[in-house]
Amino acid sequence: MATPLSAASAYANIARIANNSGALGGPSAAAATGHEQTFTDMLKSAIDSVQESGRKSDAQTRAVANGQANMVDVVTAVSETEVAIDAVVAVRDKVIAAYEEIMKMTI
Q: What is this structure's pTM?
């Protein structure tokens, strides 16, 4: 089960990604260079972040199997990955629900 610390970390990562992309209307490095980051770019960045989190938890698991890491670090890494995946699934569900709602609209 995810801890409040790992949930807070996941939300902070999502907020950092949103702030860096300018998705919340704030200035971003991409806007300063004249290249706006699209929703697809932001989504790819979030998925890459989740994938990297999974790699870190795998590395921690291998390290504890070799006796080189602490079990608490493994549990923390796996929990952070779980929270990140749950966040991605929640976003996917919201996007699908929005698409279905749009498809129900009459023209």
A: 0.58
Q: Are the C-beta atoms of 87 and 14 separated by less than 8 Å?
A: yes
Domain boundaries, the chain: 4-21+44-104
* Closest C-alpha among 49, 59, 58 to residue 83: 49
Tell me if 74 sits within 8 A of 80, measured CB to CB: no
Summarised one tens digit per residue, pLDDT across range 52-102 is 988 998 998 899 889 888 888 888 888 888 998 998 899 889 999 999 999
73 contact partners, CB below 8 Å, separation of at least 6: 60, 64
Which of 9, 13, 2, 10 is closest to 75 using CA atoms?
2
C-alpha span between 39 and 95 (Å, rounded): 12
Q: Do residues 95 and 14 lie in contact, with contact meaning Cβ atoms separated by under 8 Å?
A: no
